[in-house]
Design a protein that fits this description.
Layout (H helix, E strand, L loop, with lengths): L2 H16 L14 H9 L3 H8 L3 H13 L4 H10 L14 H26 L6 H18 L15
Length: about 160
C-alpha cells in the first residue's frame, strides 16, 4: 500500500473515531484538573503529597505547572493515580482531518497557481478567471494524490497543466 493510501486510510479512520468525541466537557478547569479533583475529594495538598511521595510544596508547584501547561504527562499520570484517576490524552482536530488536508492542498495549489499565473501573464498566457478555480482544485487533488500537501519546498505537482 502506498504512503498516500495509508495516510488517506488513517485520516478516514481517525475522523470516524473522533467524529463524536465531545471535546468541550474535557476542557481543563480554570484551576486545573489536579486541584479540581483534589478539592472535589476533599483532599488537602498535604494528603495528596503523602500519596504521591512528595512535599505539599511540590503539589502546589505541580498544580501551578498544570495551569500553565507545563506539567509532563508522566507526572500528571502519577498524580492522577494518587487521585484514583487516569489521564486521557487526545489530540482532537478542530475540523475533520480530511478538511485540514483539503484546506492545505488548496492553499498550496493557490500559491503554485499564483506563481504560474504571474509567469504566464508576463508571457500573455494567464489562466482565465473563470477557469482558475478549476485549475486550483485539480492541482490540489494532485498534491493530495502525490502526498505532497505539506511539502513546503515543492508545492507544484510533478506534471504541468
Amino acid at each position: 500500500m502506498k504512503t498516500t493510501d495509508r495516510a488517506t486510510q488513517a485520516r478516514r479512520e481517525l475522523d470516524r473515531r473522533l467524529a463524536d468525541f465531545p471535546a468541550a466537557p474535557f476542557a481543563r478547569p480554570h484551576a486545573g484538573w489536579i486541584r479540581a479533583v483534589r478539592d472535589a475529594l476533599g483532599m488537602s495538598q498535604a494528603a495528596l503529597a503523602a500519596r504521591v511521595g512528595v512535599s505539599a510544596a511540590a503539589i502546589s508547584q505541580l498544580e501551578a505547572s498544570e495551569t500553565r501547561g507545563g506539567i509532563s504527562l508522566a507526572k500528571l499520570a502519577q498524580v492522577a493515580e494518587a487521585l484514583d484517576c487516569r489521564v486521557v490524552y487526545a489530540l482532537v482536530p478542530v475540523t475533520s482531518l480530511q478538511d485540514t488536508v483539503q484546506r492545505q492542498a488548496l492553499k498550496a495549489a493557490e500559491q503554485h497557481i499564483g506563481y504560474v499565473s504571474q509567469t504566464m501573464a508576463l508571457e500573455g498566457q494567464d489562466i482565465p478567471g473563470d477557469r482558475r478555480r478549476d485549475v486550483v482544485v485539480q492541482v490540489a487533488e494532485e498534491l493530495i494524490a502525490e502526498g505532497r500537501v505539506w511539502d513546503s519546498r515543492a508545492t507544484a505537482p510533478t506534471h504541468r497543466h
